[in-house]
Every structure is written in structure tokens, then in C-alpha cells.
Amino acid sequence: MLTGMARLLVVKATAGADAPERCSQAFTVASTAAASGVDVSFWLTGESTWFALPGRAAQFALPHAAALPDLLELLLTSGRVTACTQCAARREIGPDDVLPGIRIAGAAVFVEEIMSDGAQALVY
């Protein structure tokens, strides 16, 4: 239904286990869009930055929600996943710590993505 759309969807997750429903919504919307063929850039910020680390998504549980490791894997294979530079630094997370395929980048890259022609940004 959405396959072939040229628009970029940028989804910023700001919540982690501290706000599980909001966190799950961000992952679910982004992965659904990616599975539908939409170009997706998914940002891990704030407490969601922890999910850039191996095994952390598996520790997340929310009744009646898709498994976070599955959604993250889909985003890694079908989209782009970025951990916020400052958020990672505050948690002492470096490039060698994150899952393969996750980049660490800052506000300049985020602004570039959301200001590109046709981009749509969602913040959870």
C-alpha cells in the first residue's frame, strides 16, 4: 500500500523502559513503515539509547506488544538506526558498544534528515 513512496519518515524514540507504551509505539510505527517500503530513519534518544546495546531490547517487555528485538532487527535491515551522540555519551556508550548497523550521530544529522524535501518527523 505504501511501497514506492519517496518520502523519508524520521522517528525519534525518546522513551525506554521508563515509558514502555510510548517506547513501543515508536518502534511499532517505525518498523511498520519500514516493512511497508517506506524509507525510515529511526533515532534512539534519551532512555531509548540503551536499546543500541546488545541484549537490551530483549529485556523490554510490554503486554500485547510486538517483541522489541524483532522490531529493532527489522529496522536495522530495512531502515537506518541512529543513537544520539549526546545521549550515548551521557550513558558512556561508544561506537564499539552498539549493535552492528547502529550509527552514533548528533543534532546536525537529525536536522538534515528532518529538513530534507518530503521528510516527515515523528517524536515519541
What does this structure look like?
The chain is of the alpha/beta class and 124 residues long. The protein is built from four helices and five strands; from the N terminus they run βαβαβαβαβ. The chain has helices at 20-35, 68-78, 85-90, 107-114, and strands spanning 8-13, 39-44, 80-84, 102-105, 120-123. The longest helix is centred in the first third of the chain and has 16 residues, at 20-35. It is globular, with a radius of gyration of 13 Å. The protein starts with 7 loop residues before the first strand and ends with a strand.
Concise synopsis of the structure shown:
Helix content is 33%, strand content 20%.
Strand order of the largest sheet: 4-3-2-1-5
Low-confidence stretches: none
Query: How much helix is in the residues?
Result: 25-40%
| pLDDT averaged residue by residue | 95
Order of helices and strands: EHEHEHEHE
Q: Can you tell me the overall shape?
A: globular
Helix count, DSSP H or I runs of 4 or more residues: 4
Secondary structure tally: strands: 5
The rounded Rg comes to: 13 Å
Q: How much of the residues is beta strand, in percent?
A: 15-25%
Largest sheet: 5 strands, parallel
Structural class: alpha/beta
Oligomer: single chain
Compute the separation of the termini in Å: 24 Å
